[in-house]
Amino acid sequence: MSEYDVPKVWEWNKDEQNQFGNQPVAGSRFEQTLPVGEAPLQVYSLGTPNGQKVAIMLEELKDAGAQCADYDLYLINIGEGDQFGSDFVAINPNSKIPAMMDYSLDKPLRVFESVNILLYLAEKYGQFMPDDLAEKTELMNWLFWQTGAAPYVGGGFGHFYHYAPTKQEYPINRFTMETKRQLDLLDRHLADKDYINGDTYSIADMAIWPWYGRLIQGKLYGNAAEFLKADDYTHLKEWADRIGERPAVKRALDLDYKAIK
């Protein structure tokens, strides 16, 4: 492969297509009417790691006996560009899943970005988030770590190792190095605790598990777990298996998403 000759000014080649429909502009691309069910919470999502976070939380709320936490779950097929429709963009102007509408309020409220949805639901229903300032701060440390770190795993390692049309040594090595550093970080953190925030299961686990737990279990990016020597991260693997055995987590992975059209 020849070296890329970087132009002085980048220009978008509109004839060049990619599997995710990415473009250098935001906003809706077509008119869309999303269905709205009877439940107070309307969730528009997909079973990606970010989508799984919210599905896990909603199923955990069921098991915790949370009142009025019923939801309808609709499929946003990012391969077909559903995320660029007018109704979805009105909920999430960033055109990323998951997105949610809460119709239980006098004025319906939109909530987007997966970790923000977790925080919103935890505060609304008083579940899976501590009240103690120190414990809550530690939980926030790890939530914000996840939002900053996971793009290196998904958009970096996952893309170049598994999705990119050509295999390139430099970006694969670059993002493999960073992904393994993050796995080692989590493995060290979990050496003396059962959950991310200590002894108590929380939304920090729900945010981190779909990315790092699923990766270490060999559920992301083809043969990535073998490539990354996942078995070396024993504490992380034990945590991943512990979370994966929770009934709500199992249900969340098997949910049926309703069609939007």
From TrEMBL:
UniProt domain GST C-terminal: residue ranges: 132-261
Domain of life, source organism: Bacteria
Pfam family, one: GST_C_2
Record's signal peptide: none
CDD domains the UniProt entry points to: GST_C_YghU_like, GST_N_Ure2p_like
PANTHER family per UniProt: DISULFIDE-BOND OXIDOREDUCTASE YGHU, GLUTATHIONE S-TRANSFERASE-RELATED
NCBIfam families with a match to the protein in the record: PRK11752.1
Name this polypeptide is given: Glutathione-dependent disulfide-bond oxidoreductase
Species of origin: Alkalibacterium indicireducens
Lineage, highest ranks first: Bacteria, Bacillati, Bacillota, Bacilli, Lactobacillales
